[in-house]
Amino acid sequence: MCEANAYIRNKDKETLVMEAVDLVTPEEGGIRLISIFGDQKFIKGHIDALSLVNHKIYITEE
Amino acid sequence: MCEANAYIRNKDKETLVMEAVDLVTPEEGGIRLISIFGDQKFIKGHIDALSLVNHKIYITEE
Q1: Out of A24, A51, A55, whose CB is closest to B50?
Q2: Nearest CA in chain A to B50
Q3: Rounded to an integer, what distance in angstroms lies between the CA atom of residue B37 and that of residue A4?
């Protein structure tokens, strides 16, 4: 499977916010993360970077 | 492997811009796509959405 773990990146700090993310969709004022298990989380921020071979999604909060 | 294909999304149209993308990094005025083969492409835009189980990265141009 090709899901990835989502991290909020703040300067040098990476905070895991969701594992096994499949979908990330834009939503009013931010983005919605949806995992392969159906878990959902809204984050006021945007996708900053990806490192897919390492299964990482980096998010910057706004 | 967990790379994905990057598409520019414009209304209902999806245009493939790079296959097998591993890294997407922010860069002045846009984002840089880097594939697992080392190909690179700069795009004036941002990551809009992800559908990782389907190996898709959606980009909106600015």
Answers
A1: A24
A2: A24
A3: 20
Is the C-alpha dihedral spanning B39, B32, A19, B12 positive or negative?
A: negative
The residue written with tokens 């990782």 in the block is: B52
Contact with chain B for residue A49, Cβ under 8 A:
yes
Contact A47 B46 (CB under 8 A): yes
Question: How do residues B3-24 score in pLDDT, each as one tens digit?
Answer: 999 999 998 899 999 999 999 9
Contact A48 B26 (CB under 8 A): yes
Buried b (16+ CB within 10 A) or exposed e, B13-43: eeeebbebbbbbebeeeebebbbeeeeeeeb
What ipTM score was computed for the predicted complex, to two decimals? Answer: 0.93
